[in-house]
Amino acid sequence: MDDSMLHDELAEAPLDLLLVDDEAGFRDSVAQRLQLRGFAPRTAGSGEECLEVMTSQPATVVVLDVRLPGMDGLETLRRLKGAHPDVEVVLITGHATTADGVQGMKDGAFDYLIKPVEIDQLAQKIRQAHDTVVRREERRREAVFRSQMAQRMAETERLASLGTLAAGVAHEINNPVAIMIQEAEWLMDLLQDSVEGRIDPQELSRSLELIRTQGQRCREITHNLLHFARKAETRQQPLSLNGMVLEIREIMERQAVKHHVVIDTRLAPDLPEIVASPSEIQQVLLNLINNAISAMEDKGGRIRITTAVEDHAEIGKALLLQVADTGPGIGEADISRIFDPFFTTKPVGKGTGLGLSICYGIVTRMGGDIAVESTPGQGAVFSIRLPAPTPGAQPQARPDPS
Question: pTM for the full model?
Answer without folding.
Answer: 0.46
